Amino acid sequence: MDSLVTTDWLARELGAGDLVVLDATRHLPVAGRDAEADFRAGHIPGARFLDLGRLADPHSPVGYTLPGHTQAATVFGSLGLHRDTRIVIYDDSDVKTSARAWLILTGYGFGRVAILDGGLATWRAEGRPLETGDSAGEPVLVRPADFDRPVRRKEDMRENLETHAEQAVDARDAGRFTGETVDTVHNLPGGHIPGARNVFFRDLYAEDGTLRPAPDLRAVFETAGVDLVRPIVAYCGSGVTASVLLFALHRMGIEDAALYDGSWAEWGADMTTPKAKGPAA
Q: Would you say domain 4-125 falls under CATH 3.40.250.10?
């Protein structure tokens, strides 16, 4: 199974015994929407609701960092996911939260995971059927596994300011990156990690909400000054839209890019970390 599937593909595969569809929609508070209530009002038939809030470390001082292995295994088990399950994730979120679910699932050892290209918006626009109410799988035991994707901490990012071993790439919009606007989501001033490049995650999608093909993705990164041969670490406000960058890099064949888990929520809130404003140097 490819890591990006079309609505036509999913329509043909719905009902297969080894396939689980997950709605991983999560909204920013400003959206004023209840993702779980929206799921009950209409979702892809047979889909199960993945509450991404349950896949964040509740003890993190910066809010929305990756879950621990036991916490993640508990959530996966409650959804009835087996290691050999084919999993298709979709969302109906402005911040493309299916990429965050993809990152966590694949990081914790699920090898057959795909994102539905265009998400629920495309499925609905094509007039495909929706189902209402709750939908849940039979809970199973999932053994905890280590997170097997590169993750960077604040001390790593501090060291990188000296070594320049990795390119920091910021997924936020240009206003927050340059400091022209404040980060209202995290109640922090704008700005960026010194030396970072800016690839706004929405620029990776076509007007119809589908992911751009790999050559176009490559062009977006290269136009932003990212050297795709050198190591990359992605960040954003809290690690969610940075996951979009990591999925796009995966689609381009780049599998070793890292996530700065704390992102700007951590870096921007620390009075001792250096910050830059203006466009990328």
A: yes
Q: For 145-167, write each residue's pLDDT tens digit.
A: 999 999 999 999 999 999 999 99
Render pLDDT for 46-68 as a digit per residue (tens, 0 to 9): 999 999 999 999 999 887 899 99
Residue 211: partners with Cβ closer than 8 Å, 6 or more residues away: 4, 115, 117, 204, 205, 217, 247, 248, 251
pTM for this model (two decimals): 0.97
Provide the 8-state DSSP code for 81: -
At 258, list the tokens: 């890292």
The dotted CATH code for 151-267 is 3.40.250.10
Active site residues: 236
